[in-house]
Amino acid sequence: MDTQIVYIVVSTPQDFFLEELWASLYSLRQFHPEARVVVLTDEPTATRINASTYQQLRSMMTELKTVPVTKEYDGKQRSRVLKTNIRNLIDGDFIFIDTDTIITASLEEIDNLDIKNLAMVPDIHLHSFVKERTDLLSVPIIIENVYGTDANDLPIYFNSGVSLVRDNALTRKFFTKWHENWLISLSKGIDTDQQALAYTNHCFGNVIELMPDAYNCQLMYGAKYLQEAKILHIYRNPQLCMGDYPTRHLWNIYPKIRQEGKLTDEMAAVLMAAKSQLSASSCIVNSEDMGFLRCKFYKLYKLNKFHLRWLIDKFNRWATQRENKRKIRIV
């Protein structure tokens, strides 16, 4: 594989982002032991990686590149500083991969993809901007409020977790603008990067190209692409997960890696069989139900705000009892 692979990690002892990187890099090295892997990070994280505890992780990197980032930002914001400016920090074509991923097949075909500038996979695998997707309705509103521009013509809302980026003048200008737009959104209280990405793509005339979905199989929504998936994007943030996430137990590997100070053979076996690690009781829902499972009401229910879980469970019990009594009368 000739295309270099780039990760970004910013971590503290209070999170497991280094362990995420460890698992993703391990799975990558099973298919590409000789590939060039560059990890971008800030100074505090680099200090942790270079400590004896993380030597196994460090050995899987070709280069650990430390980038000065102001300490005024928190960890999430520092990682976005690097992510939105990554094209101007790395020379040559690259594929960027988020740390909350597992590589499940060879990526060598990436060298031959017909991509002119940069390519990504649509967010939650929707190949059109679906107005019925309630959580996306806020994107044009955010763009209008932050940038004062109507962006209702967005054809696709892309997921920034995996991207193939060519090294040319356009992509360097694109990332410079993405970084500038992210700083504007940050100044207005929005520190996530995909809204700024969508606006930048809008400004450049929608230049982001489609990448095969197998390279960013977002497992909550990508059942259609699971069999062919090359990169599983497993989303470790529970607040982003609808219902009881079917691979939640995969997350348990990260604290175990820290506890053991290494990735054991048992952990490796789980990682390399990631596609079969779904919970025994896992359900596939359609886009209409998914819209409900991602709505604010359902999130409040999962967090048990306003006693919603108690109220709904109580209603369900009452409704079930009522239905059972009706059936008995019919009999």
List the helices and strands and how they pair.
Layout (H helix, E strand, L loop, with lengths): L3 E5 L8 H15 L5 E5 L1 H7 L5 H5 L3 E4 L8 H10 L9 E4 L3 E3 L14 E5 L15 H10 L10 E8 L3 H19 L6 H10 L5 E2 L6 E2 L12 E3 L19 H8 L4 H8 L14 H7 L2 H7 L5 H23 L1
Parallel strand pairs: 1-2, 1-4, 2-3, 6-8, 9-10
Antiparallel strand pairs: 4-7, 5-10, 6-7
Helix pairs in contact: 1-8, 4-6, 5-7, 6-7
Strand content: 5-15%
The SS-based structural class is: alpha/beta
State the order of secondary-structure elements, H for helix, E for strand: EHEHHEHEEEHEHHEEEHHHHH
- End-to-end Cα distance, whole Å, is 68 Å
What spatial form do the alpha-carbon principal axes imply?
globular
The count of β-strands is 10
Biggest sheet overview: 7 strands, mixed
Describe the structure.
The structure is a single chain. The protein is built from 12 helices and 10 strands. The chain is of the alpha/beta class and 331 residues long. α1 (17-31) crosses α8 (253-260).
Characteristic terms for this protein:
globular; 3-stranded mixed sheet; alpha/beta; 7-stranded mixed sheet; 331 residues
Gist?
It is built from twelve helices and ten strands. It has 331 residues and is of the alpha/beta class. Helix 4 runs antiparallel to helix 6, helix 5 crosses helix 7 and helix 6 packs across helix 7.
